[in-house]
Structures are given as C-alpha cells and as structure tokens.
C-alpha cells in the first residue's frame, strides 16, 4: 500500500488519519477461496470418493480374503458389492450433474411431449364411448384422477398391490382392510 502524506503543521490531522488507515490495512489478512457452484463441488467430491473406492478395491482393502479351501468370505463379498454399487451410484450422479443445460432442456421437453401424448390419448378414450372406469371424489384434487379404458386394458384387475412382484400389480390399486390381491376383474366383450 502506498500512502501520500503532506508535510507541515496544517496537514497534521490528515496525515495522522492516513497513517492510521495504513496501519489498519496492514493487519488485514486475506484467505483465498475457490468460487465454485454446489454442483461443481459435489462432482469434485464424488470423483474423489470414486477414486478412493477404486484404489481401495485395487489394494484389496475391502477385506476379500480366501477362507478355507480358497473360498471367498461372504461378508467380504458383500462389502465388495456394496462398494461397487456405491461407485456406480456416484458415477450416475456425476453423469447427471455433468449434463449440459441444453441436454436437460431437451429431456424436459421430451418428457412434456410424452405427457401431452398420454393426456391426448386419455382424452380420446374418454370421448370414445367405450366402457371406462373413472373415480369421483368430493376433493377436487383427487376427482377424476384414475381412469381405466377397458378397450385398451382388457381385462382390468382391481386389488391390493403385490409386494413380492411389482410386475403383477393390478390395473387399479386399492388399499384397506378386506381388499384382496385380486378383488375384482373387469372384462369387456364387444
């Protein structure tokens, strides 16, 4: 810092204030900080964690040691699978964060287009005159939200969700006591 002072008694106060300011300025300590967005910071942390996990896998630090007869320890294998799953999850997060703004916009537009197509198909089915199932509710947020067109989904099943196999869930899922897995079947014969 360079201070300009003037000699002479009339400038004493001005010179004193300048020197006091310069003394205070000397005591300022700067701590440089890297400015980065939250996404960039997360990507950097995920990359470091992936590198650490891969290094640990390469060194065998997970604890895979052959047991009697050369068999691998099941607990160590589980740790290995968990570490690999964590690496894969981190990589997926990094890929999602690295997507460009244009790619995210393109994905959002594609999702909106698919929703519009599904809505148009449902509207056409509602106006088609075929047999349909539509819920009615006093709550406006829940009214007419579930729609089943029997010309498309034939037969349509009604029941509680199958927790063991999600692919075998009924068309219309109901909950509550007394509801069976296959509570009802709607079949349309034209």
Proportion of residues in helical segments: 40-55%
Order of helices and strands: HHHHEEEEE
Flag low-confidence runs: 63-71
> Structural class, from secondary structure content?
mainly alpha
Q: What gap, in angstroms, lies between the N and C termini?
A: 92 Å
User: What do the pLDDT scores average to?
Assistant: 80
* Apparent shape: elongated
Total number of helical segments?
4
Q: Count the beta strands.
A: 5
How much of the sequence is in beta strands? Answer: 5-15%
Please state how the strands of the largest beta sheet are arranged side by side.
4-3-5
| Radius of gyration of CA atoms, rounded to a whole number | 34 Å
Main sheet: strands, sense, barrel: 3 strands, mixed
List the helices and strands and how they pair.
Layout lengths: L11 H15 L11 H22 L14 H25 L2 H26 L5 E3 L12 E3 L6 E4 L12 E2 L10 E3 L4
Parallel strand pairs: 3-4
Antiparallel strand pairs: 1-2, 3-5
Helix pairs in contact: 2-3
């Amino acid at each position: 810092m360079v201070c300009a002072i003037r000699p002479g008694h009339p400038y004493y106060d001005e010179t004193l204030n300048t020197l006091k300011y310069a003394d205070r300025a000397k005591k300022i300590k700067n701590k440089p900080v890297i400015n980065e967005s939250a996404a960039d910071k997360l990507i950097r942390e995920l990359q470091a964690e992936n590198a650490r996990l891969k290094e640990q896998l390469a060194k065998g630090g997970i604890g895979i040691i052959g047991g009697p007869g050369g068999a691998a320890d099941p607990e160590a294998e589980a740790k290995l699978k968990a570490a690999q799953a964590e690496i894969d999850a981190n990589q997926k997060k990094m890929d999602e964060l690295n997507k460009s703004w244009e790619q995210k916009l393109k994905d959002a537009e594609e999702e909106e287009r698919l929703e519009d197509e599904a809505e148009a198909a449902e509207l056409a089915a509602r106006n088609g005159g075929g047999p349909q199932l539509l819920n009615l509710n006093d709550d406006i947020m829940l009214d007419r939200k579930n729609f089943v067109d029997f010309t498309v989904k034939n037969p349509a099943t009604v029941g509680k969700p199958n927790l063991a196999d999600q692919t075998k869930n009924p068309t219309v899922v109901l909950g509550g006591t007394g509801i069976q897995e296959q509570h009802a079947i709607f079949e349309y014969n034209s």
